[in-house]
Design brief:
Shape: rod-shaped
Strand content: 15-25%
Structural class: alpha+beta
CATH class of the largest domain: Alpha Beta
Helix content: 40-55%
Oligomer: single chain
Length: 463
């Protein structure tokens, strides 16, 4: 099974990964934002609780050891050692200031505290990151007695969020990878009937209508598809067998009366007293001969469709075969003064049916002679490369229109002008050539342009 962008498995997996990835990214973003908001909210609550307790203790600061109380409160509220606390009275005289911070940091915090309110505020201090600060004030009779500033760094929150982000960056791709692998296995299992249908259809293309799909007893669309496909193949098989039987029977039935008619006419030609009757009988004999050849050809093609034609495979020297066919082509071309040239560049051995291969080359040479004007040129060329022998028959005839090239090997297909019945053909010669080439494991194709001639190339495997 080739994996391409158009493969249904690839497209389904791509859409699955895309949709699942978007869902996980959205979920991870929401989770990250929720955790971030929760951590900041908890930090603010601890900061407000601490500052509230501090404000309640300030009126008793003369009887208490503020440093010890502040430290114990920091442990109870889990604010950590990096706590900044500064308390001053209504005259601006400091009552307490944390001594564990560097003078530079304490100065920056003191300068930034001028803009802080009773609500927690985020401060960005160059070189020291982000801090969260709150301002608390003790009033009496509308007058401010004490003012306290409490701040704590957001480093702990950011570290926790960084760990969460790393976890999300590891988990989301892992989930996508595992989900994709599981989806691929499920899709392979679900689409295996389609693959089986494709393989069966490819076998049926080789005229083996006995193949049928295995019908899974699942009760779903796959079972319906398999049953419908098998019914269609059965109808095709019956139609093909009836058509094949008709062609075979018709060919057999026509051979006998045609042979009798031809014999009677030939007898009449020998005994007829008048020349005009002889001309009529001669014309009838010619037409009967044409019909006999057509019947023989139809019978041959019918047998090939039924695979009743066996090849007599033997080693064949290609150079000798080409030389013999060039001589026959020269005999056919003599009345029209057409020059036949042989370029024998392949001294190889073919494993094939010599009689069939001669018929193939004779048909191509006969076509080349028929549709090449007088004084033209026909070239028979052979060459060998990569385990294949290529035989070419090139003429300088009238050529073939581009729209006719795809159908040139179809049965009974004749190009209106360049392949007319007046030339004596029924449009079956090239169909026979195609069958002979493919029966030998080869191919045949044509390159042509109106007024520039045609080149028929046959590619056959060497022994």
């Amino acid at each position: 099974m080739r994996i391409t962008p158009k493969n249904i498995r690839v497209r389904l997996i791509a859409w699955y990964i895309f949709s699942l990835g978007c869902a996980h990214v959205l979920l991870a973003s929401v989770l990250y934002q929720t955790v971030s908001a929760r951590l900041h909210h908890e930090l603010d609550q601890r900061l407000l609780t601490y500052s509230t307790c501090l404000v309640e203790l300030l009126p008793q600061h003369r009887q208490l050891d503020l440093a010890e109380v502040i430290g114990e409160m920091a442990e109870l509220t889990a604010l950590g050692p990096d706590l900044y606390v500064r308390v001053f009275d209504h005259n601006g005289e400091p009552i307490y200031e944390a001594a564990g911070l560097s003078p530079e940091l304490a100065g920056r915090l003191h300068a930034a505290s001028e803009t802080v309110t009773a609500h927690p505020t985020t401060l960005r201090l160059p070189g020291h990151g982000l801090w969260r600060m709150v301002r608390r004030e003790v009033q009496e009779n509308g007058k401010s007695l004490y003012v306290g500033h409490v701040a704590i760094p957001l480093r702990g929150v950011h570290q926790a969020l960084a760990k969460l982000l790393v976890i999300l960056l590891l988990i989301v791709p892992a989930i996508l990878l595992l989900s994709s692998a599981g989806a691929w296995l499920l899709l392979n299992r679900a689409l295996s009937p389609l693959q089986e249908a494709i393989q069966t259809a490819q076998v049926i293309q080789a005229r083996d209508f006995s193949q049928r799909l295995r019908v899974p007893k699942t009760g779903d669309e796959v079972q319906v598809l398999a049953e419908t496909f098998n019914e269609m193949i059965e109808r095709l098989q019956r139609s093909f067998e009836r058509m094949q039987q008709f062609i075979s029977d018709a060919s057999h039935e026509l051979r006998t009366p045609l042979t009798i008619l031809k014999g009677e006419i030939e007898l009449g030609l020998k005994t007829c007293p008048r020349s005009d009757r002889c001309d009529i009988l001669a014309a009838c004999s010619s037409e009967i001969s044409r019909m006999s050849r057509l019947v023989e050809t139809l019978l041959f093609l019918s047998n090939t469709d039924a695979e009743k034609v066996a090849l007599d495979l033997k080693p064949i020297r290609l150079d000798r075969l080409m030389a013999d066919m060039a001589e026959q082509a020269q005999i056919l071309a003599e009345p029209k003064h057409i020059h036949v040239e042989l370029i024998n560049g392949a001294d190889t051995i073919l494993h094939g049916d010599e009689m069939r291969l001669r018929r193939l080359l004779l048909n191509l040479s006969d076509n080349a002679v028929k549709y090449t004007p007088e004084g033209g040129r026909i070239v028979l060329r052979s060459q060998s490369e990569n385990g294949y022998a290529e035989i070419q028959v090139t003429d300088t005839g009238i050529g073939i229109e581009a729209h006719d090239l795809p159908r040139i090997f179809d049965r009974f297909y004749r190009v209106d002008q360049s392949r007319s019945r007046a030339e004596g053909g029924y449009g079956l010669g090239l169909a026979i050539c195609k069958w002979i080439a493919e029966a030998h494991g080869g191919t045949i194709h044509v390159e042509s342009a109106p007024g520039e001639g045609s080149t028929f190339s046959v590619r056959l495997p060497v022994a």
